[in-house]
Queue: 4 jobs
Job 1
Amino acid sequence: MSAPLMAAEDLAVVYRRPGQRTVTAVDGVSLAINRGQTLGLVGESGSGKTTIGSVMLGLIQPDQGRVLLDGEPAAWRSRAQRAVMARRIQAVFQDPFGSMNPVRKIGQTMSEVPRYNLHLKPSAIAERIERALADVGMASDVLDRYPAQFSGGQLQRLAIARALVVEPEFMVCDEAVSSLDLSVQAQVINLLASLAVSRGLAYLFISHDLTVVRHLSHEIAVLYAGQIVEQGPASAVATNPRHPYTKALVLAAPVPQPAEQRARREARLRLAAPSARGQTGLADQMGQVSLADSRPLASRTPSSGCRWAPRCRLVRPVCRSERPVLSSRRPGWKVACHFDTEAGLAPDLGEST
Amino acid sequence: MIRRLFHKPVAVVSLAWIAILIILSVLAPVIAPYGPQDQDLAHALEGPSRAHLLGSGVLGLDVLSRLLYGGRVTLVSTAISVSVYALLGVPAGLLAGYRGGLADKIILRLSEVAYAIPGTIMVLVVLAIRPGDETAAMIAVGALAAPALARVVRSATIALREELYIRAARLAGLRDWLILRRNVLPSVMGTVIVHVAIFATTAIILETGLGFLGVGTRQVTWGEMVAEASHNLGNQPWLLVPSGFVIISLVLAFGLIGDGLRDATAEGYSIRQTSRARGRGNKPARSAKPDRALPNKAAANIPPDPPPTGPETGALLALNGLTITFETNGKPVTVVENVSFTVAPGQMVGIVGESGSGKSVTVAALLGLLRGTGQVSAGTMTFAGQPFDLSQTKALAALRARRIALISQDPMSSLDPCFTIRYQLAEVIKANTPLRGTAVGERVLELLRAVRLPEPELTARSYPHQLSGGMAQRVAIALALAGEPDLILADEPTTALDVTVQAEIMDVLRSLGKAIILVTHDWGLLVDLCEKGIVMYSGQVVEEGSVERIVAQPRHPYTVGLLRSNPYFATAGQPLPAIPGVVLPPGRWPVGCHFAERCSLVRPVCSEARVALTVVRDRPGLTRCLFQDQVAAQAADQAAAMGAALGAALEIGVQGTGQAAGSQP
């Protein structure tokens, strides 16, 4: 089998700030994305998903592990290396206003990389821009306008078009549709999905929204406090999650179907049912860990054992002492939980808690 | 940019005046009636005359001629020092700010040294070494002032360095100088222009000062003329007028042209900068093309909608005909149009819509809290039987906190970082209830328990920065409860929170037993919390009714479209049925149906006249659509078509709940 287009091997990123505890934002994460495939990366704030995206883009140097492009180690050290990487990897970020220079016209911003990195002739640049604009469904009269003249959705399309002009093979989308209104978000999701088909693009699609990730991804990796807790086929992970955290995530996301939402709410409340802890819910147990502490999630979680353990209803002594390994009991579906069995989570666990 | 500059009369006049002075000075040898040292002893120290248009000084030197010759010195000196200032300061600042590290340290240290050198003394030293060499002196002036500019440019560059577009450019492997020239310099240009203009005025004054002191060049200068005038102030006061005027006017012109240039540079790209605040603030986006705007309909011409559904009698709140305008470019633009609804005691009502729908502004108006130029142009409210005119915001103040409380999107904005949670809650309790003494402290803990904070004592002692986002939002809810209100307005209360925390905040809101108006863009939250739903689009209520009915049987094309755009209902691998087009900004709304442009069922009649909110025929509720039967058919078709997808979606729940249920005793 040939090497995946983009891979990360055993990544770790440690944030050290003077006078503060060091924070392991990403801890032993491995990913692989094949050509034309989309990997969805889901997690809450502080889970390290953006950090992983930044490593894959060369914005952050990992403290451990490496990034492979076509099986070769990727490097961004020199400007020449960065220029080479930029021809193959592009990014779309959450804030469309921040990712376009407000004082430059759209045309100037879009032609920058083709002109100064790819050294294309003006006619070739114009051709590529025209194709990219057609792909995102914008007219070419946008080139003479400034970012402030567009809505968030239009600007996000233009940000995608700017990435397409380079004709990359891989794109990192970091919360690329999160700031958009629902009707516009659907347009951009469709656009990204159709580009994956028409241009054979591979994506690392980072989002907190499991529903959106499920729709776009072939595979989903669920991140908690810097570690992957579950990874598998998108529909399987989203519809039948096996890790308790993924389950909590699925049940907490409200859905626009009254009966289903009621069922989810009840299931969530049962899963988080307080036993000896009084009336506190799932996140409140988290709250107890985090009280008088607004530091990132990763720094508030235990350094030994399962990081989800303090918030887990199914917690057992072994969870606090031994870190569960991300292991595969079904092909292509990995879960990091001591109680992940072929039949799912052992049903008796709930009773004795 | 030049074209925009010429639209500014002040800048044009300033520019013209500087140009005239430059041309006259250059042409001095040709047009000056006398040489700079030509004496006319017969007419010494005289006012304006035919022979000496601007009078004459000592020894009968012609003032006009000397002004023209003197201008050459001043303008050249100013140009030299400004060039040195900008050419040293801007690159040094860009380099220090962009590169950081060693380059930054060296440039900062050098600038500190330069700060420590007393400038005036340094200039006098230069002139002592090279007497009369004003060029050297002015280079020294520019060089000594440049570090100040470098520091300003450095700060601006540092702020830009972490911007996404700069990071993206760096990541694209573009050369640094290219990034600086194409991306950073244009952004800091406004700041540079202002500082250069200010420095130019300083340079002019300094140069004339040197002339005044007689330490500058040996040629005639304006400063020297001022000195001469001041010596002869008693004999011929007129002498001070021409030289004084020319100096002051030049200084003023430089200052004004700087402002004009800065504005002209910024105007090109900041046409609609306010639109960034859209969704967060309640300021409407400015239209990019106001020329296409249709005339705003006066509120008075709008025919009344039928009375809103819901319990008419005994309603806690009945809003009637709320219309809100914001002023854009001096013209009032309607952002909310004739919105009416009721809230029963204890009822949970959700207003759902996208940005620009007017949902947040509507809620702000209920409390009289419209920001900026926002104004209620029509609208009344009956709250607990008491009538209010919403345009009279003063009367609404009495309702705030005690009767109606607000929970905002950012909990930190309602908490003061300087005080403990206990102190802040106690303040609100004392201000709004008769409780005093120890009862206040007990009430604080009771409120913190009501919002299900795990350790109320510890939370009460904490400062806001010690709380996580979810805990801060709980405290914000406790603050809202402190005044014992009957109605809570929750404007996107969980947008900034993670889903697991959001779910628990929703649990808290559900448990309060108060009437709530939830403003949200998330259908899931609407379904989770509310019984009654109000769908807003472009400032209007387009559908209203029970949430279950709206979601299961939508009767407005926008509701159908918005529900279908939700990936929850979609089949993986299939494109989402997105609504085409964009939300029209306020000011460009058509007279007819606001959704017509994006609607698949649109007919010519939709755009002809205002569409009224009408009763839904086959179920309780209201819709603002002329073709509700077709919408119903379309919705049913789609429900059938999406059957498979929905089945799959339901499966999530069945399996999810099934397993969770399995873990239950």
Job 2
Amino acid sequence: MNIDPRTEFLVGFGGVSGSTAVSATFEPGTDVEHRGRGMIARGGGCSYGDAAQRGGGAVVHVTADPSAITLDLVSATVKVSAGHTIRQVCQELLKQGWFLPVVPGTSYATVGGCIAADVHGKNHVHVGSFGQHVVSIDLVDGSGVEHHFSATEDPDAFWATVAGMGLTGVIVSATLRMIADKSGWMTETTAMADSFAETMSLMRELAVSHHHVAAWVDLRSRHRGVGVVSAANHIDACAFDASRKSHQLRSPLPCPRTSVSVLGPQRLAFLNAAKVISARRHVGRVGTVAQKRVPIESVLWPLDAVANWNRLYGRHGFIQYQVAIPDGAEDVLIGISKRLATLPVYLCTLKQMGQASLAPMSFPLPGWTIALDIPANAPGLWDALHCADDAVAEVGGRVYLAKDVRMTAQHLPTMYPRLDEWRQVRNRLDPKGNMNSDLGSRLGLLDSFS
Amino acid sequence: MSAVGVRSVLLLGGTSDIGTAICRALVDRGATRVVLAGRDPVGLALRAATLKHVNIEVSLLDFDVVDSSRHRDLIDRATEMVGDLDVVICAVGVLADEQGIDADPVAIARVVAVNMGGTMGVMAAASSRLQHQGHGTLVVLSSVAGFLVRSDNPIYGASKAGLDAYACALDDLLRPSGASVLVVRPGFVRTAMTAGMADRPMATTADAVAAAVVKGMDHDAHVVWVPRPVGLVMNGLRLLPRSILRPLLRRQQ
């Protein structure tokens, strides 16, 4: 088979719904070839869905030289390229005793991607989303014009780019706030609860004294409903034994490519049971807690320990269904998880979320977020997710666009009520509609609201 | 493209049993927008009713496969309705009134115009769209009859043979763009088209064909045989010398 050397097949992290695009290099001020189908920037390819691909169009690969990270210790900010991965940035920052205030669940996402999706961490309830710690953004808009935005210089464009899914232009670089972290270690507290509702109240309790809180809930094995809550704090410099070397990030284990899923329903149940049992062994009974000192990456990026773990789902890939549910609608959250528990869900994670950011298209809202990993060929999956969408939209919740590969445009204005406002700013930055992605065309994100 | 990512489907030959069965299977796998294109508005509406479901949009388009001048327009209109076409199913086809050497030349021309000439035109129009999109699958319903043309249905068989050959070559043209063609070669399928005919060996159903198509898409296959053993038998037969093969094909009458 002779593949056009300039085109490449791109697919999201979930391995579902790929498409072929021209890979374009991008220089500000020049017109990128996009064959009338639009172009989109792609960073680490960590978006689960079709946000960073454009079938028949152009994809700009954004990478960066790892050395080009400049710290400004006076203002406690760091200037990075959009193509730097969170891992590269954190590695550099840790060397000098700093860290980022918000990091996503994978360290392989790029800064540009984190801004474009306005990602959140396990500490959202305390510090908000990634975009809330961005000082300024340099962007080349859809017409090739360079801009410098911040919360004070053209704030509308700044907040349209944050969570703008890359549709306002190509992010070139950004200045981010840093926090002090002399050790690179954390204290992790693990606790268990017997049911979904108890897990949530346990998380609320632990969030009072812990910075990072997330829970994993078993929806699969005979321990169904058991939640394992992990809560962690950075170890501050005084408490840390100065004679010990500060921790540096470890490289991940490789994972082979498999064409069939190694995560069959029975194995999923077994893995879930194994996780519950190992947590029990560690924690003891429900109601007690266990504490230990762990490297920062095993708390913040546990899945990064194995590179390309998404391959375990085989060629069908998987869907990560992540939704946010506002406070007060916890019963809907529990209802959805119960309904979807009839499917082979391996990973079900739960996080509490705090104040929403100013970005119109930002995902987090005060309440909860649940993420479920489900093999994409699970029977009945699509219907179940459509029903879940209805329930989420009804209570004012939303589906996370960075994870989505399947939602229909119908719920979009309900889930993202400030869509129209965002579209207006986006149209100003890219009046010709040169930017587009498979996600954008699937959900009609660019369409003017009529 | 794996069947999992399919959201929009265009069915050419919207009243086809096999075509609608494939649509149903894709809807089960997450397709939400279906366009049925065909000549008979009542038939299309009835088919649409069987697909209608919560969250599924079904639209209808008027389409006559022999009206080649409107094929490009048809694809454009389908695109306007549902956006990018993830799957285009080409399920157009008629049986011939097979009368051996006495067949009516006009009837032969008509069968070839529908099964091959017209279908090739609409396939080309769809392919250019898929290539432009950089993704998508063109599912072409060929037939076992087109793989080895028997003397009991030479007209139908020859028209499908031409279609099959074109589809295979089109696949080579499309692959570099990210789109692809899936050639489906079913054996005898019990459908409205074959109603009243006696079952042949290894007869199958429209739903079985649909399941095989979805599986073929998942595996990014070039060709699917339904049922699978038919492929082995046919490929095996094709290896035989002509002096053994042709009498065998005659005997199947």
Job 3
Amino acid sequence: MKKYFLAFVILLSFSADGAPLPSQKGQVVLPSKESSVEFVAIGRPTALKIRGKGGIPEGSFFIQKNEVTGSVEVILENFDTGIGLRNEHMRKKYLEIEKFPKAKLEVKKMILPPSFWREENTSFKEVAYEGVLSLHGVSRSVQGVFELEKRADHISVQASFTLKLSDFGIMTPNFKGITVAQDVQVIVSFLAPLKKI
Amino acid sequence: MVRYGYFNCTSCHVSPTGEGILTPYGRSLSREILSTWGKETEPEFAYDMLSLPPWMNLTGKYRSVYMYRDTPRVREGRYILMQLDLEGALNYKGLGLVGVLGRKATTKADTWQDHIFSRRHYINFRPSDEVSLRLGKFHHAFGINVPDHIIPTKRALGWDQGEETYNFEAALLKEQVGAHVTAVSGNPNVGKAEREKGLAVTATIFLWDRLKPGVSYFWGDKKDQRRHVFGPYGILGFTPSFFLLTELDFQFLKPQTEKEQKGLVNYQRLDYEWVQGFHTYVTQEMSRLDFKNKKARSDAYGFGLQFFPRPHFEFNLLWQKQRTLSISPEYFDFAWLMFNFYL
């Protein structure tokens, strides 16, 4: 009986193709070589697209089996919309970065498809996740989608979500007849090594 | 402004096709991203010495050029006063009234009233952010709308300054796509036989927040001829400092009594902004509106400097090598220095 049990345990530690199962635990640390946070806002009534670039995500994610936990922070002062006066208004008047210098996204529910550990190279798109965004002194839950590509020991991720300015107590930006729409899309991207632990 | 992510002209101009009076936001951008120097209130109307109600925009414009040409027939330098205009816009809840009153350069003037005319006036209704309806006198949308009105894609096609027509325009102005459809009823300043009626259609798309390629089509009909003009164009901002304006138009012209003429015109300007407000550029342009007539061809290559020192001011110097085969097979020198001031 003992012999059979031992054989069963050994069998469990191998996958269907005979190879040993990986540890199914990993960590991603940011910032990495290619990591960024951007936002896209729309100015009305002229459908003006305002893209804020230059945000660098800092933090780490842990992957256990197919569940992801962790958080990233971004220093808001680094965002650049391409126009000096607009940056000044964004930082001082609307985001009030002296009082609230960082934004933080904490992942609450992010489930990877089963192929993530099973296959060395895999990718998937439009996977939903939930998190809590802390911005401008307010924390609220946000929902978004992400896409992921795994190549050997690196993963590339692009996660996005939409926030509503008024949910975070941010005044509606308005300048000389152009008013920024309430919904702002945030995009977090990175290519980082996946450290198996 | 496409290179800064401004896809629609209406951020900076009252007109949906981007000419004429600036919006308050456009005035502010003239200091922020167009001019080398400038103080905070400097771009405002009359340097902020006069305060206007929020529903009113006013401007004045002085535009002149000193032109030099050295051809086998003539060598001359000449000052030309191109525009001395007052323009006003009234806006109330999506409804806008725009009008220009200016000095007309003419030799057929008996009284001072003959020197006054309106190059542009229209009613603009915006039922939503993305839709614009316009009725009045203005240049219909077609290709790139640049102030340089003597380029082949403007003058050679009959869309020079002073050739504005009465139109009805419907425009779609979205974040990623734009379209203009214009019913053209002709230029009121010419006789009925010369008045060309037609339809103009343009469509553009916004790619990677910096590239604005598009296509245009015009169908025109007047007493003794019909024509189709169509072609691609692009306002392509490779970086915020480096951009290309390009347009190529084919024309099929069918005069009533003569054979069909097929031809093309093009214009290109490759521009680099060294420091904010200071540009150098090269141009290439060609007009060949009848492929069968080898002499109906002109082309030019040029080098230019453009400088926006402060809000309200613009200097533009272009030196070209021009060739007009109907005059001479040789290239000759043509240069102009343009000065523009708006209040």
Job 4
Amino acid sequence: MTTIADSIVQTEALTKSISGKAVVNEVNIKIERGDIYGFLGPNGAGKTTTIRLLLGLTKPTSGTVRLFDRDIRNHRLDVLRKVGSLVEYPSYYGHLTAVENLEAVRRLLDVPKERIDDVLAIVRLTKDAGRQVKGYSLGMKQRLGIATALLGNPELLILDEPTNGLDPAGIQEIRELIISLPRTKGVTILISSHLLSEVEQMATRVGIIAKGSMVYQNSISHLREQAISRIRFTVNDPASAYPLLRSSGYEAEWDDRSLTIGRADNASTAEAVALLVKHHYDVYRVEEQTASLESLFLEMTGGERSL
Amino acid sequence: MIIRLMSVELLKLRRKWIWPLVALGPVGVIALQAVNYALRYDYLVHQQPGEPWDGLISAVAWLTLAALLTGIFILASMTAGIEHQLNAWKLTVALPVKKRHLYAAKFLLTALLLLTASVLLIPLTVALGLSLGFGTAIPYGQLIAAALFPYLAALPVIALQVWLSVTIHNQAVPLTVGIVGMMTANFAGSRIPDWLPYKWPQIDYAVNEPGLYVPAGIALGLVIYAAGMLDFVRKDVR
């Protein structure tokens, strides 16, 4: 267990109601230093609202937000100094160039002028830095948004769907950048997405939100374990074998041809087979069922596909 | 922090053509008076009692009312619109900046632009008077009073338009309020009751004392500014 001091983001029963409906309902997020936290959920699940609550753009109906172990209600300015963010779609001033956009933010953050060139180089916009942003493609605007988030050398980076509108090469670049930041700069990252496959390859921890409530929060490896460890037994009389497995403590399901048990490691699989054989059931097949992470995600979020 | 925010506000005006718009108000007023004096020179200069400079200053002040009230709602809406247009409020509010400072910077920017326009009236009026041959006995006191007192008396209107423009995303609302106010002030003229702030900028300060109108304008302006700021701080950002 890490100590309290390493807690970067912590929310307690965070709730936001809009006209009586809880769009974010008792959400407890916990992110520790160095995490890449994948914040997942279908469109409209409450991801962006939660992020707005974290940044103090929106005030919670109830519950608290602590960043760097400080309540943002009392220390908003101190904590925001250490946070870089990109919320929803990138914010920018279309009539200004990329350099002018970054300069506007730089003056408020009070960081050295060289940072502008640094972040432009990081997102590879140096060549187009002198152009008005309204002429940029969506991907370029997105990269400018990421550059803006990086400008103040943040310790916590909050990126809301940062790969929206990027082409595959751009997505790959951003992904590599995100993976490298905690290693090279000690940055903690919260990245939201409606696609599990997108954060799966970079996140160390995931939180899944559906209809305003957190339905899962743990390490990505734990999620993977859940996804693969179902064993299916094809037996001659599943209906009568089912109570036997249940009474022996297995989480079993049955249909007219087979039995399925969840969370089975090698030992418990062997024990289940032995149990069935001992009671004279014919075991025809033992198969591992690999549910994909994506289908597990869909199941957790109530099967709502993001369109 | 306010100074930093102001420097950012001024940076954001680049390529927005706001400065030419600021100059357009006073230049337009003076140009119209130039036409007026060119057409009716004899009547205005020789057949009116009093000094020609006094007549000119009053004539300019009379036309300035519409320009000032129009300038207020247009500039308030444009400076707030820079943020509304691409939902840039969330960008700035997520930075380590106090929301009340952010509001103060928007108000100050609008007030500064309008002050620039009001001050510009002084040299432009002088130039017109000199070119009309009114001589060099320029009544600067009256000139400055006629340019600046309406501005100060209009502070409640400035504060109201900034409030509406900043807190309401749909700019049709502040623009409608601004237009209705401007029309009321112009067409109802002296029939407006004294307590209505739209009356205060239209006193001819070249010949009248600032009286209660100017202090009341500053005081009510501050009150409305504070109310708008509290509303902005309380509201969630889009």
